[in-house]
Known about the structure:
By secondary structure, this protein is an alpha+beta fold. The chain contains four helices and five strands. The protein has one domain: Molybdopterin cofactor biosynthesis C (MoaC) domain (Alpha-Beta Plaits), CATH 3.30.70.640.
Amino acid sequence: MTGKGLTHIDEHGEARMVDVSAKEVTERVAVAGASVWMKPETLRMVIEGTAKKGDVLGTAKLAGIMAAKRTHELIPLCHPLQLSHIDVTLQPVEEASRIDVRATCRLAGRTGVEMEALTAASVACLTLYDMVKAVDRGVVIGDIRLVEKSGGKSGHYTAPEA
């Protein structure tokens, strides 16, 4: 291992991918969340499936899953991972005029899956925006966060309630 410990900086101050080969293989799970706010009439269109671009929720779910699998191509220095499970859920919350997104990624490996879960949630949100932007330019994406993670040396983490 070059540099000192698990760091993205080598002994010359240059960015590098962390060498995780000495780390123990453990079951690792990460859950990320995000929310997308839109006009009530836009949310109704999404729920009813009447958007001109088609199935907004199904497309956003698929985009999130595909993004998780390609995180290493999007985020510099991320390891390519063999994810064993990816789940993306999109839950409309009519009284708040938003859609809550939750992405869960799992594997047995030497490095965590937080970036994969966060990427899945983010891309699902961006896809929601893309699918409705023609009728609602005021869509807001926010609250992208790690909700929970388990496995690895750092153990279990649960985010405080927002």
